[in-house]
Amino acid sequence: MSHYPKKGIWTACPACGRHVHASQWGHWQQCPYCQYWQRLSAAERIDQLVDPGSFEPLAMPEQAHNQLAFPNYDQKLAHARQMTDMTEAVITGTATFNHWPSLLAVMDSHFMMGTLNTVVTQRLITVLQVARKRQLPVIIVTASGGARMQEGLYALVGMNLILAELARLAHAALPLITVLTDPTMGGVSASFGFKGDVVLAEAGAKIGFAGARVIQQTMPVTLPPDFQSAASLEAHGMLDAVVPRPALRAKLIDVLASYAFQGGNQHG
């Protein structure tokens, strides 16, 4: 019998570098030494936020297509599907939060860095359309590096398509709540990330457009240590609140209760 620990039991914290046992991360996936929050999968996020057993996935397009014949894209998609057991970088469905119903979309940074592509765009548009039919609020939890370069212009057009659908949601007087988690960058932050009627951020999240290193090399400027942090964005009026992970569900319940949407056509 080997005296070495099983593979994957110990991991180095990305923030402080300390070795953390799997049991020490706990339910909230937080480093016990520096309080760094591990990135969650979409399934873990849903499990932490919604009422137990209430999540019902929406039927969505399953596969992305390599329309530009981008080298190695098919292989990267296959690898991402195998590693995450997901078909794309977002999970969508209906759920309740302390019995308040909502449409929910949760992005996953483990699937090609949560990048926005044609399938993710279509899934988000479908969520917004179903919300209008059922007269329900929408919660989008972002975790993304931006638009997916392997789909080029097709991915970039998705930003405008989602914004157009958000305008229809606003015209229907239905609320959008966005929850920005680590990371929310690029085209996702530049389009729908900050379009929520209520914009929340998870504590410790990195949020911005271009990366700090790119900005520093391009300008050139010396950036403050807290640049693109959730706390800094809140201090500059870009966010409504920064919420620690254990308090996020309660915060969403409070926001939904303030709107008091019970839902109209539940089967529309």
Task: Please write out the topology.
Elements: E1 10-12, E2 19-21, H1 22-25, H2 42-49, E3 56-57, H3 73-84, E4 90-97, E5 100-107, H4 118-134, E6 138-144, H5 152-171, E7 176-184, H6 186-193, E8 198-202, H7 212-218, H8 230-235, E9 241-243, H9 245-259
Helix pairs in contact: 4-5, 5-6
Notes on the structure:
The chain is of the alpha/beta class and 268 residues long. The chain is built from 9 helices and 9 strands. The strands form 2 sheets. It has a 7-stranded mixed beta sheet, sandwiched between helices. The chain has a two-stranded antiparallel sheet with strand order 1-2. A hairpin with a 6-residue loop joins strand 1 and strand 2 (19-21). Helix 4 (118-134) runs parallel beside helix 5 and helix 5 runs parallel beside helix 6. The longest helix has 20 residues, at 152-171. The protein is globular, with a radius of gyration of 19 Å. The model has no long low-confidence stretch (mean pLDDT 93).
